[in-house]
Design a protein that fits this description.
Blueprint: E1 2-6, E2 13-16, E3 22-25, E4 51-56, E5 59-68, E6 72-77, E7 82-86, E8 90-97, E9 107-112, E10 117-125, E11 130-135, E12 140-144, E13 148-159
Antiparallel strand pairs: 1-2, 2-3, 4-5, 4-8, 5-6, 6-7, 8-13, 9-10, 9-13, 10-11, 11-12
Length: about 160
């Protein structure tokens, strides 16, 4: 398992499992006596196949990572366009994680079944399935969980671009 990032508030830790899947761990549920440090593997921080959102000068690019080398990230965008992004242009990288649940303060992207997309901080969900989201603008939005595209709900896992080999 490779540690990727600490989640905000009670979100836990984001990790990559040995089989390559992404997961969220609650540190309170770990049996620390069974821990066996194996050393860091920076090559497992970001791997081809990951869905990513990359902030570059003047824009944000989202797509599936095809390859990365010492100077370029290559993505396949949603429109099917192959895009090469030079590392020196990257200011922020997030892996898009399809979490089975949302935790308070998770940075999320939610897509409705009609195709509208909302990005912000998850605040809560009530017993009727009404999600309270704080948008990037600071405004609040309420959206019903039943109106979301289940394949369009992502938690953003932040990575430090300087740590990616």
């Amino acid at each position: 398992m490779t540690f990727l990032a600490f989640g905000p508030e009670d979100a836990g830790w984001y990790v990559r499992l040995v089989d390559g899947r992404l997961a969220r761990l609650d540190p309170a549920r770990l049996d620390w006596s069974s821990r066996e440090p194996l050393g860091a593997d920076p090559k497992s921080l970001l791997v081809p196949g990951d869905l990513v959102q990359i902030r570059v000068i003047g824009e944000t690019v989202r797509g599936r990572l095809l390859e990365l080398d010492s100077s370029i990230f290559t993505l396949a965008t949603k429109a099917g366009v192959k895009r090469a992004i030079e590392r020196h242009e990257v200011s922020k990288i997030n892996i898009l994680f399809r979490a089975s649940d949302l935790k308070r303060a998770d940075s999320v992207i939610l897509r409705s079944r009609s195709g509208n997309e909302y990005q912000g901080s998850f605040q809560s969900i009530d017993e009727d399935g009404l999600i309270d989201l704080r948008l990037l603008s600071g405004d609040r939005l309420s959206v019903r969980k039943s109106r979301l595209d289940k394949d369009g709900v992502f938690v953003l896992i932040p990575l430090d671009p300087a740590l990616i080999p």
